[in-house]
Amino acid sequence: MTIFSGIALVSFLASQSATTIPSEALCEVAEIKNRRELHYALSRRAVDAINLAAASDPALAGLIAPTATFSLGSGDVGRPLGLGAIGAHLLTREMKADTFRFPGWDYMLLPIDNPCAVHKVDVEFLNTPKKNIFRVTFTFEAGRIVDASGWTRSYESGPVTPVLD
Questions:
Q1: 67, 84 in Cβ contact below 8 A?
Q2: How far is the C-alpha of 36 from the C-alpha of 44, rounded, in Å?
Q3: Coil, strand, or helix at residue 127?
Q4: What is the predicted pLDDT for the residue at 25?
């Protein structure tokens, strides 16, 4: 890390820790009526939060609670990374992900009673040069991340012979 990027990071983190979101803040997913839409919206919010954290973007404060916990394990050891914007930023630095994926909601189109209640989604982030995959479970409350806990694994990938009809 260069001195300039270190100064920029400290400035970003200081602005994030000073940012407070009032408890009466609106739940941005309140209008969602079914589980498929909620699953997609929360999964995208998780990816957006990781992108904003990687870019040290102050808009991150709108997606995560100031007390949100972040952790990442590997092997048989879990490690807490921090709270709020600092924890999110440290998660991105640990992963150094270059792509993501999450499963769709391929089930019945079920209604959702309270989209602002506690909900969880899993998103996988990949660091393709190092062949690492990070499966992170994001917990949301009122549409904001309150926890992100992940685990690191190595992976192999390659082509397979497709079936031709």
A1: yes
A2: 12
A3: strand
A4: 54
* Share in percent of the chain as helix, strand, coil (round to 5): 30, 30, 35
Tell which residue, 82, 71, 95, has the closest CA to residue 148: 71
Query: Could you tell me which residues come within 8 angstroms of residue 65 by beta carbon, excluding any fewer than 6 positions away?
Result: 21, 84, 141, 144, 145, 146
| pTM reported for the whole predicted model | 0.84
Using DSSP bridges, classify how beta strands 64-74 and 77-83 pair: parallel, antiparallel or unpaired. Answer: antiparallel
- Residue 140 and residue 121 in contact, taking contact as beta carbons nearer than 8 Å: yes
What pLDDT, on the 0 to 100 scale, is given for residue 75?
Answer: 87
pLDDT digits (tens, 9 = 90+) for 18-54: 444 433 358 999 999 999 999 999 999 999 999 999 9
Provide the residue type at 112 as one letter.
I
Give phi and psi for 47, each to the nearest 5: -65, -45
